[in-house]
Structure formats: C-alpha cells, structure tokens
Amino acid sequence: MPVTVVLSLISHTNIGKTTLARTLLRRDVGEVRDAPHVTQSNQEFELERTLTGETLTLWDTPGFGDSVRLLRRLRQEGNPIGWFLGNIWDRYTDRTFWSSQQAVRNVRDHSDVVLYLVNAGEDPASAAYVDAEMQLLEWIGKPVLVLLNQLGPPQTSAAEQGEVARWSDHLAAYPAVRGVLAFDAFVRCWVQEHVLLERIAPLLMPEQRQAFAALAAQWRERNEIRFSAAMQVLAEHLTAAAADSEPLPSRGITATARDWLGSVMTGREVQDADAKRAMTVLASRLEASLAAETGALLALHELEGSAAAEINTRLGEAFAIDAAVDPGKAGLWGAAISGALGGLIADIASGGLTFGAGALLGGVAGAFGMRGIARAYNLARGNEATLVRWAPEFLDGRVNAALLRYLAVAHYGRGRGDFVQTETPAHWRQHVEKQVAQLQPRLQVLWQQAGLGTGRAAVVADLQPLLESACRDLLDELYGIAEPTVGVTTAGR
C-alpha cells in the first residue's frame, strides 16, 4: 500500500505559515494578509506524489494566539468539563481559540513531522509565546524542525548560521526540537529545500523512509531540471547579444581620422548620429531580449509579474565598432608609416574603437604592407561593412547581470506576490564577479565565435555548461555549509 508522509506547518499567528505554504507548493493557496488569525481552519495540500502513489502532504493550520491559555485547555480535555469547554463552548463563544485547539489536535493525530515557523527577527528569550508553544509541541509529541522566517534580505552564510545558532541554543532544552534551519518564506533558494528534505528523512518512522526517499528524489529532480532550463535561457540571451550587430553607413578615412583626433584632443566622445542610431537599435533589442529572458525565468519558477525595466546606459565603452578597412585608403597611410605604427593606422581606418585588434595587424605591417593588412583585417573580421556590436567587456558584464538576475528569481518565494526586481545583496555581487572572472578566457572565445557568425546553437551549447558550472559553484559558496545544528540533537525517533 502506498505510503503517505504528513508535514504540519504551525506557528504563532501572523508569522507567515501560508506564505511559506505558497512558496513550497508554488501556487496560491489560502489567504495572505498582515493580520492575525487569517487562516481559520486546517487545510491539507499535496506537495509531491510519485507514479506509484507515495504522497507527501502539507497541513497549513490556524496560528496560535494565547498559547498559555491554549495549553491549559488542551491539558483539560481528559476530564468531562475540559472536553465540553474545548469542543462545545469555545466553538460558539470564541471561534479563533477553538480553531487553535483544532489545529493542535490535528497535528497530534495526523502529522509525522512538525515544521514550526518562528520570526527570526525576534529575540527567542524575549518572545514569551515561544516557551509556551514549545510546551504545546511537547504535548503533541511529534519531532519538530524549527524554521527561521522573516530573516530579511539574503544574508551571508556566516550571518545566517549565527541566527541558527542563537535559536538552537535557546531551544536545546526541548527534546521535541530536532533541528533549526534558516528557511525564509520570502527569500529561500531551492537548494535550501534539499537541506530541508535531508533533515526530515531521519525523523520519520523506518517504514516511511524508503517512500520519502523516492518523494525527495523526485522533488530534487524537478528542481535540477528547472535549473538546467534556466541556464539555457541565460545562455540563449547572452549568445543573442554577442551575435547581434547593426550596420553603419561607410565613412571616408578623412572624416574618421578627424573624429578620432578630435576625440583625443578634447577628451569628448565622438558624436556620430549614425553610430548613436545603431547603438540605440542594439540597446532596444537587448532590452526586449532581457524582458523575454526574465519572463522565461519567472515562468520556469512558476512566478508571476515582470521585472522592473533595466535601464541600459548606452556609453561608448559598451559598444565595439568593427569597421571594414578600405584597402586603398589604408595604403595611403602605409606609404608613409609602417612597422609597429601600422596597428595605430588600422585603428584609425576602422574608427579607432577596435579594442586593440589593429595592433595585431601592425605586427606584420613590414611583411605585407598596409594594403595587404587591410585585406587581412576585412577577411579576419568577416566584415564587408562597418558594424556596431556589443564589446566583449560589456558582454562579460552581461554574464554578471544574468547570474544576479537568476539569483533574484530563484530566491523569490511565491508568497511574496508578483515578482519585483529588488536591490541585489552586496555579497551576491562579490561571489558572482569571482565566478565570472574565472570564466573570462573561455567567454572571450565564445564572444568571438558568436561575432564571426558561428551558429548560435553551437555557442549556446558551449556557454550553457559554463554558466551551469559557475552557478553551481556560486550556490555552493552561498549555501554549501550544511553542518549539524548547534545545540540541538538531530537523532531520529
């Protein structure tokens, strides 16, 4: 017969149980309001089901109010007067209090593991209701995992573990508590779900563990499939940007050189109407691609809403101008100057924005002459016209932004409502920049391949595993610490 594993989610009122239920279920359930006693009855939801019928269910229960009074009433249910008060009198005179009693009885009678949610922003020693509710949990008699909610924006691993230690030390005196985890209803990441599953497994009865292992494996597999799909979305977006270009009308060498020399003398950016138009077109396409990428990430994570529009600052250094060099005009310069200065000439002839590509040509100027170099430059770049495209440095920055955007979506619990792009935690940026710096040599090759017209599918196929590996290392840095909880036993029943 298929096995069912039952988790019960309980807490003091208005701590965020239904918000967490929505995040775990990835769908809108119940009602979420900043008010006490919003959930008025026990609600059962299916978290996972295997093809062979093993089921993982979650009960969302009414929040505790007056915990001391509640504990006293439950302890009286063994005598006739206490039974009458709890089952009849309270039901009609104090519906909220009666609902709390029903929640506790339901947890005692049906649950296998209790998930007790607390407000991590409170001092456990100062929150009087915590100790009273710990006694309620002892009365229930089921193993308890304490989940720290309302941690605020994502913290460093060290700060998070400090919160866990603080609550673990306070709760160590209660045998029912088998562990404390940082598991925010608002900003948890999917890798933390795997830690939760690992901590639940040893708390189950032996006859339930094989079924739960199958359920947990299916949960993990779904998360892994979503992760790989997200990395493909990022790879497609970045490849499209690297391959994108916009043509410019051909300009004479005299006008090009005048603009270049003027920019050197004045320090001002060259104001070229055609170049600005091309840059605007490129930026518009990037913005549209960005919106599509974010929408795809939200759909994968079963979220709704749209990211705030990212403002693309169209600075000159964001663009590379690949210009087809005119062999005749380059030859005129080559008659006067050759050798190492050939690189400078090639840069002038191509608009002065090749990021050093002309210097490579200059190294062979004496051997081939400037006319031959110009032809080699056109052939090597594959350009028959002047193009504006995104510079490699800018594309590297897009990788940083893409990984940060993924983290923002992957941490966004459905209980928060529609997705809204928020400020990125500072420690995320540091970790992302480190990972992307390690990828830079391989990224440069891929940007070049995309710019030369290599099939996009081939570039995506090479870029996706790079992003996936970097993001796994990133998540491991952020959440790789999974040490036993301080001060709390993790032994099974």
Order of helices and strands: EHEEHHHEHEHEHHEHHEHHHHEHHH
Structural class given helices, strands, pairing?
A: alpha/beta
Rounded mean pLDDT is 74
Described by the principal axes of the CA atoms, the overall outline is: elongated
The tally of strands reads 9
Distance between the termini: 23 Å
Q: Helix coverage percent of residues? A: 55-70%
Task: Please state the CA-atom Rg, rounded to the nearest Å.
Answer: 31 Å
What's the assembly state of these chains?
Answer: single chain
| Estimated share of beta-strand residues | 5-15%
Order the strands across the largest sheet as they lie in space.
Answer: 2-3-1-4-5-6
The major sheet is characterized as: 6 strands, mixed
Number of helices: 17
Low-confidence stretches: 30-40, 308-317, 328-382, 481-493
Count of discrete structural domains: 2
Give a quick summary of the entry.
The chain has 17 helices and nine strands.
